[in-house]
Specification:
about 375 residues, mainly alpha, 16 helices, about 0% strand, Fatty_acid_desaturase
Length: about 375
């Protein structure tokens, strides 16, 4: 990237990520090198910064406490209902299945909630957001706050950038985009039959990401970094599940119940989180892109409805979420028309799909990438 492009990008990225800019600025003094001569933002930068000012002036970065309290109570309700059904109706197959669905629903919604805390969009205070993020992602989800921040901050800073975004670093199982499949095919790298990855995705992706891979990665991350606090919080989650369900289901019954619920949640999580990114451009970081253009290239929306907003944790507004990471999700719908208007003005594509097309595009993009690998490998 050119010096001007780097300046443009990091100015907008810094503003997007930091709520308390006066506090964050204190840490920049030691990094000061100099000023870029004859700096002038592009028309896209100018308009996006005006839009950012409009967002701040309208108070769209301020959270609605009622929204977040209601949502948090609702996930606790689903969690409690899973236990109540087993207590009230026993462990026959029908109440057992209902309890799995309710517990998985509570887990999925807790995942969207910890995402809110992680993005500093629930409380004005960063310290309180961090505290609730540790507790929610640890005690309610069995994960690590530091692990989540390590992965997710990189994803937001460089979405769909190979070797920078960990969410697209899965080459030993899936090859994404156009560039990496062509490169690996030409060098005859990899051990998977990537031309069939759109088939084995259904076996290795949605069912196993949460119950197997994330458990392994979180433990490895915490042990490697000696993050014993997050590891302890994650263990308290497993203890809570054991003490809650073992009286109804016994030891092995609880393990089976837990695993199947996490498999169900994993399907929910994978389809929602991948529908906005995998079908879009995935490339190496070789373009002089400003913050706005990069986020629109790498993200897409799914059409809004009251149910799908809830089901996806408002991640169907992925464009607005990436442009304004600290914005409370209940305000995405307010800024979306302005973002779309700005895109139309500058000839930038604003992608919004139906949910079934968004899900289907995941599979078609895997198929297209697999064919690119196959052609490069054998020709």
């Amino acid at each position: 990237m050119s010096e001007k492009a780097i300046t443009d990008f990091f100015q907008d990225a810094w503003v997007a990520f930091h709520g308390n800019k006066d506090f964050a600025s204190k840490y920049l003094k030691s990094l000061y090198i100099g000023d870029v001569a004859d700096y002038k933002p592009t028309p896209v930068q100018q308009d996006f910064r005006l839009l950012r000012q409009t967002v701040e002036d309208n108070g769209w970065l301020r959270p609605d406490p009622v929204f977040f309290i209601t949502h948090f109570l609702s996930l606790l309700f689903f969690d409690a209902m899973a236990v109540w059904i087993l207590w009230q109706f026993g462990t026959g197959w029908l109440p057992w299945v209902a309890a799995i669905v309710l517990f998985a629903t509570a887990q999925a919604q807790a995942g969207w909630t910890q995402h809110d805390y992680g993005h500093q969009s629930v409380f004005r205070s960063s310290k309180i957001n961090h505290l609730f993020h540790h507790l929610t992602v640890g005690v309610l989800k069995g994960a690590s706050s530091h692990w989540w921040n390590f992965r997710h901050s990189q994803h937001h800073a460089k979405p769909n950038k190979l070797r920078k975004d960990p969410d697209v670093e899965m080459a030993y199982v899936f090859l994404l985009g156009k560039e990496l499949p062509r490169e690996w095919g030409a060098k005859q790298r990899g051990i998977m039959p990537y031309s069939y990855q759109h088939f084995y995705f259904f076996l290795l992706g949605p069912p196993l990401l949460l119950p197997l891979y994330f458990h392994y990665e979180i433990i490895y991350f915490c042990m490697k970094r000696r993050d014993y606090l997050d590891l302890f919080l994650a263990i308290t989650y497993l203890i809570r599940i054991g003490y809650t369900y073992t009286p109804f289901l016994s030891g092995w019954g609880t393990i089976i119940f837990y695993f199947l619920a996490r498999v169900l949640e994993s399907h929910w999580f994978v389809w929602i989180t991948q529908m906005n990114h995998i079908p879009n451009d995935i490339c190496y970081d070789q373009k002089d892109e400003d913050w706005f253009t990069m986020q629109l290239r790498a993200t897409s929306n799914v059409n809004s409805s009251p149910f799908f907003d809830w089901f996806s944790g408002h991640l169907n507004y992925q464009i607005e979420h990436h442009l304004f990471p600290t914005m409370p999700r209940h305000n995405y719908a307010k800024v979306a028309p302005l973002v779309k208007s700005l895109c139309e003005k500058h000839g930038i594509e604003y992608r919004s799909k139906t949910w079934y097309k968004a899900f289907a595009d995941i599979v078609w993009s895997l198929r297209a990438s697999g064919q690119i690998w196959y052609k490069a490998y054998y020709e």
